[in-house]
Amino acid sequence: MRLERRAAASGLMGVLAPVLAVLAAALGAALLFAVMGKDPVACLHTLFVAPLADATGLSELALKATPLLLCAIGIAVGVQANVWNIGAEGQFTMGAIGGGAVGLWLGPEGGWFVLPLVLLAGVLGGMGWAAIAAWLRTRFNAHEILVTLMLSYVAVQILGWLVRGPLQDPEGFNFPQSRQFEPAATLPLLFEGGRVTIAALFALAAVPAGALLLGRTLIGYRIRVVGLAPGAARYAGFSETSAVWFCLLLSGGLAGLAGVSEVAGPIGQLLPTISPGYGFAAIIVAFLGRLRPVGMLLAALLMALLYLGGEALQITQQLPLAATGVIQGMLLLFLLGADVLVLYRIRIGGRAHG
Amino acid sequence: MGDGVMLIALLVATLRAGAPLILAGIGELVVERAGVLNLGVEGMMLVGAVVGFAATIGSGSPWIGLLAAAAGGAAMAGVFAVLTLGLRANQVASGLALTIFGVGFSALFGAPYQSHPIPGLATVIFPDLASASPLVQQVLLLDPLVWLALAAPFVVQRFLMRSRAGLVLRAVGESAEVAHAFGYKVIRIRLAATLFGGAMAGLGGASLSLAYTPMWTENMVAGRGWIALALVVFSTWKPHFVTLGALLFGFVTIAGFQANAWGIPVAPNLLATLPYLATILVLVLISRDRLRLKLNAPASLGKPFHPA
Amino acid sequence: MLSRRSLLLAPAAMGLAAREATAAGPLKVAYVYVSPVGDAGWTFQHELGRRALDAALGGAVKTSFVENVEEGADAERVIRKLATDGNDLIFTTSFGYMNPTVKVAGQFPKIKFEHATGYKRAANVATYSARFYEGRYATGVLAGRMSKSGIAGYVAAFPIPEVLQGINAFTLGMRSVNPKAVVKVVWTSSWFDPGKERAGADTLIAGGADILTHHTDSTAVAQAGEEKGVFTVAYNSDQSKYGPKTCLTAVTHNWNEYYIGRAKAAIAGTWKSGDVWGGVKEGMTKLAPYGAAVPDAVRKEVDAKLAAIGAGTLKPFAGPITDQDGKVKLAAGQAMADKDIGEMKWFVEGVQGKI
0.80 exceeded by the pTM? Predict the structure, then answer.
């Protein structure tokens, strides 16, 4: 069996491949369910369909997908310039801290200006954290994979220190938490009865914005050239340094926005744990979406569905947590594998198939 | 315990804490030198840990367990290889997906083994370890996996720099197209490297489940796979710097504990950031020479190879 | 959603409990766990409680659990889903679930919620926790007797009040039989990381500690002691099989009777919100069976101390208590108020370590 590269990416397969992958994964999952003694059809329904069954479910889907999409878009822009921001998790945390601190400080005063300031502080918090990595890379050549990853751990510890110390709720019985944010510092809900906030609109807006940036602006062009042909970029005067700074600041800002949206949204305060690993999951979302904003939107929704479905399998079908991890991993592996059909034909022997 | 013995004890503790990182890191270094970026180290370590543990319980011998652990890690790496080398899937996403799969699979597979404590490797070799005198005990605590971890960078360095096969592997990592033009089987070489990386990650996991904290619980690797990945970057792809990074990381962690115990008034959370900050600092110091960094990152790292 | 009216009652062999079930069917009880169940640790003890509830009430209850639920935005969704799925009694077993529990409870007034280690209550939200520090004090006495160097090592996760209560009570207990005893504390900044806990234990042993204890979620400390021949006192669960020769006992959490009692009350319609902070007396904290290395005389002494605590004649936090800086926190004859215990943010004299 050989792979033969197609002359051009197959549009049909672009749509069909993910469908095939989901079907294959569903089959594998059904087998797993059967082996564990559960009803395969009911479980598949719980995993894929049930979370979308009502408005609450859709609201939760959007809520879960929002931080994934925001972080993914930032990461994807960077990857195009060969800038690998593996530490979106840390920028997310610093955004939450920055915005949260401002929210705690100004919230009690009230006023329409509080929320925009909170969001701005969140974006700046994430940007500032990413700026450290940008500076260390451009000035000292320190690889951003390591710096951003290490800084993620540092950010989580800083959050832990803050909620046990300077930002701790004085009436909180010395437990690690901040005061709850006042309404003035909380994001408005998108609709009553759901938890999703206007942050979902930010994420949606980032999709065309990201596409425009990469496809139609000079800076987007420069970013792509720096990534694809660094030699040519230097020759043309495109500064790698400014590309690195731009990508990390953008990425950090988006991750920071995701972070502040999470704490000024569904969580409503600062806690030691505010992210179930969004920054890392966003990396998968970025690549599943083939680094294109619309693709990432779909990928974010799919990842969110996997999370919600996995939870539902635990609750409704009493499936062990570990099994849901296996199914999620399996689905992702199939999706990634099926993508081969977009760029390649499978040839067996000398005859072409597909 | 006298001061001298205490220092030795702290050194031994640092070495034991660093062994899993070095084993997994050296494996990943070889993989990345061949141009493949496998972010699934955490998943491979967990699978290695659980498979090794299960095999030890089943066979009664930790040596069989170690072999099984290496095989388990390599099997996971095999899945990755099918995806990325066979089907040209994106390496970054595949590695991450592999980790997710590995976390779940190891938890599922290991569920029946959670209540089985076993003696650590060091105790298996020296049953009287617990009653040995302090100095002797410290030496005996250095189990074979620690020695393997210390030796591996030397072996890998020699392989990469002084052997023909190592040269070819590095060539593949620098430019797969050129190596292919010279007639080398790029995919096969990358496959071998990937499987080696998986086996080493499996041994890294086994060093936790069979030697350092001899047990199986879900998620017991607790993020060390990510640290190992970071250490490969930290090392600028030079084997001995993996050891340096792992020992630095372990040393700063343990120094932090000592600071706790001495009553140094720094908040625990902030002390906990020191290993990570130290790693960044040392990386900055190492990387300042632009030319050296550029010469060290394998040029075709992460890019899939398309034979023309 | 189940139609409760259509469910059958449990067989009469289950006795009183079955007849006490509502005519509408078994009581649906759900648990939210913050970490995987595993084989030992905080969540495992809650799981033991759930299993005990199943065993005791049989068909009168139908229990379920969700594990590894992150504190943060996910928690509210899971709790809400358990509520909409028709559960009658929901236990949320981690502090970080406090606000989500209260929020969901406000939307489901007919469902009963119980939040562990929290402080916010409502008509349908009760809180519960246990005075683990009572068990800690007794093991401190044990450590005082069994330690030759007078140095104990404590591998702790985070400096929250519950952990500090444990460290302080242990130290007070140890110094009550050895006034010169020192307890060294290291912080892992993680509830579960066996490798890090092991490194912490190694550091403490290198520093001269010949008895270890911990407030973390894995069995690494007990194993460290076993490998090196150093005594340990485990926490959360009985870990004797991880340290058959060296693990002297464990301060265990026992939620069994509490869960059974609360479920029975819910079934009988007598469930009321409130705060339960039980200790030795209520059986909510117990010591695991002693290891072989503990001499008879010491066993008797520790048992006596434990009994006295249970009877209320011995209070772990009773004056005179001096803090690390030499300030007198409690004069002789005074007993610390619950509020001050609950908000503890300082160390007693004898603890070497900083918050």
Answer: yes
